[in-house]
Amino acid sequence: MRAGQANVECAFDRMARFAISVLVRISARLWLGLCALFLAGPARSATAAPDSRALLSAALAADDLTRATLTQRLGDTAVLAALAQHEDVMSRLAAVRCAPYMREPERALPALAELAAGRDPELAPAAARRLRPIAQQLALRAQAAEDERGGEALLAVQRALLELAAAPGVLAEVRSCAGQAAFLLEQAAGVRTAP
């Protein structure tokens, strides 16, 4: 019985030593990795700004929560710049999809209204779909009396959207979204216009 017990204790001792050596190796690698990340991290982040084109391309196929996060990281200026450029349609489409998540989404309304009035089969409906949530945000802010900026600018965009909603050669989806957004902007601006 003693010989069997000694074998079990020896086997247990070997397993314990093996487990401890594995843990020591893993923890040493983790420490080295963390030290390398700590030392290399600040130097890399201080020199490299977020690449707006890469972030916008990531936002293209992302869900709404990810788009909101990427938009906050990009900033309103980068989204507006992507909306204004004409070279890269995919970046422009991603910026359209990010527009409702801007800190000041009303700044994107003129560009979105212009894109919704365009003939691009992807950009026009996407821009029209983003007009309504932005207008709804502005109407809710106006009702809560927390925002009173841009009344005249909102009316100018609202008039353009009313014209777009009445235009005969425009897609039905675009006309519907433009009409809904115009109604909400009218509420946000606090003025009623004659039909």
Major pleated sheet: none
Uncertain regions spanning at least 5 consecutive residues: 40-49, 191-195
Number of helices: 9
The radius of gyration computed from the alpha-carbon positions, rounded to a whole number of angstroms, is 28 Å
Helix/strand order, N-terminal first: HHHHHHHHH
Structural shape: elongated
What this model shows, in words?
The chain is mainly α and 195 residues long. The protein folds into three domains: 1-48; 50-103, no CATH class; 105-195, no CATH class. The protein contains nine helices and no strands. The protein has helices at residues 2-47, 52-60, 64-74, 76-84, 89-98, 109-116, 123-143, 151-166, 172-189. Helix 6 (109-116) packs parallel to helix 8. The longest helix has 46 residues, at 2-47. The radius of gyration is 28 Å and the shape is elongated.
